[in-house]
Amino acid sequence: MSLLTNLLILIVVARLLGQLFMRFHQPAIVGEMLAGVILGPSVLNFIHANAALSGISELAVFLVVLSAGLEMQFRDILGALKGRGLILAVLAFVMPMASGVGVGIAYSLDPMRVIFLGLCVSITALPVAVRILQTFNLLDSDIGRYSVATAVLNDITALLVLGVILNLPTQISAESIVQSFISTGWKLAVLITFILGFNWLLQKLNKKGVRIQRWSEKLVELVGTEALFGVLVVFVLAFGSVSEALGFHFVIGAFFAALLIDRDFFLAARYNEIDHTLRSITDGFLGPVFFATLGLEFNAATVKSLDFVAVVLAVSVLSKLLSGWLGARLIGLGSTQSWGVGIILNGRGVMELVIASIAYQRGFIAQGLFSTLIVMGVFTTILTPLMFRRWVMPRLAKSG
Fold it and tell me: Which residues contact 257 (CB under 8 A, 6 or more apart)?
């Protein structure tokens, strides 16, 4: 079938199942992912993941992250990672990483497979966390700010470790590992300097009385409202490209670029227009395609060792729940909010699948482990909103 036919079927089925789940008071993304599982090789074997769908999925991730970044403030993310917030971020990475490594050692995997299993367990998918929080209108809450900040740090750390591994030579030695850490470390330093430097420049312009809002209005007067959206996309794409050129996922750079774009840069009406445009594209079209494409990646026939899969799933869920809850409690959040953070951090989805696919393509892991990691990514992404709606939302409603 052609790409357009595949897209048509994916969109229709994903939207129908998404609406069906919403009728039963469940998030739409659960139905959207199940649409991919049903249409994929596990059930009907009707549509298969391919390069074209992956490209559209990447565009969807980009726009979801752009929409989320516009709704949040850069200073809020920095504040969440300062002091006590850093405790949560570190715990939410180290505890799951150690748990994944422990499972790998227990099943006698080789060192490289152990490392990649630990990395994939420690990941929290930023786009998935953002979409779930948007679904529950909690992106601007304490749960949202701490979850997103933790997801960003977790993803950056995992990608940093991935960069170190990919830079290793064939003959691994202590010296080559140190050199790889140094190489990846300076790239991370460049990315952080670039982001913070741009933020510093914007703050300086604001203090000197430069009204960036006037620039955006002049642009609208010259070439129309559509140009403002285009400039916004180009700006975010540039940050994403810098991030990718340095060896990190483009989502990281794109997210921070969107964070840097303050609401004060636009008139309120312009900002609302941009937000409405983004939500129409992501929620109505690209979002369902993205989550359905994740479901297509699952293939039940490649799963051989069911006990290993069961242990990986249990450890991945419990380690994130407990580390998120413990970290949130340590920084002073209430019990309900702490469980909310732990549950949100459990969603892995795209970032975990990115690392797993790179590891598989480079020959670091075999088909069996790759299939298990796909199961984990799909399972935790589906489970997260269900758990959040069942155990967190009713308690938040009562306390509110």
Answer: 69, 235, 236, 238, 239, 240
What's the rounded Cα separation, in Å, for the pair 255 and 150?
A: 13
The three-state secondary structure class of 320 is helix
Q: What is the count of structural domains for the chain?
A: 1
147-157 mean pLDDT: 87
The conformation of residue 332, written as its DSSP 8-state character, comes to T
**DSSP 3-state assignment of 255?**
helix
> Which tokens in the block code for residue 291?
């989550």
**CA distance linking residue 214 with residue 105, whole number of Å:** 59
Element (H, E) at 136: none
CB-count burial class (<10 Å; 0-12, 13-18, 19+) for 362:
exposed
* Structural domain that includes position 376: 3-399
The token pair that represents 162 in the structure block: 């991935």
Cα–Cα distances in angstroms (integers) from residue 113 to residues 20, 109, 160, 307, 365, in the given order: 39, 6, 17, 17, 6
Number of other residues whose CB lies within 10 A of the CB of residue 369: 23
Q: What is the CATH number of the domain that holds 315?
A: 1.20.1530.20
- The more confidently predicted of residues 184 and 309 is 309
What is residue 302's DSSP assignment? G
Q: Is the pTM of this model over 0.70?
A: yes
| Number of helical H runs and strand E runs in the chain | 19, 0
Q: Which of 136, 146, 44 is nearest to 397 (CA)?
A: 136
Structure tokens at 181: 């850490």
| Location of structure tokens 């740090």 | 153
- Lowest average pLDDT, out of 85-94, 168-177, 319-328, goes to 168-177
Q: Which amino acid is at 374?
A: I
| Residue 275 contacts residue 229 (beta carbons within 8 Å) | no
Whole-number Å distance between alpha carbons of 400 and 157:
35
CB 299: neighbour CB atoms within 10 A? 18
Are 330 and 95 a contacting pair, CB within 8 Å? no
pLDDT number for residue 329: 96
Q: Could you tell me if residue 168 is left (phi over 0), alpha (psi between -120 and 50 degrees) or otherwise beta?
A: beta
Q: 319: closest CA among 31, 24, 93?
A: 93
Q: In whole angstroms, what is the distance from residue 58 CA to residue 336 CA?
A: 33
Q: Sign of the CA dihedral 298, 302, 307, 308? A: negative
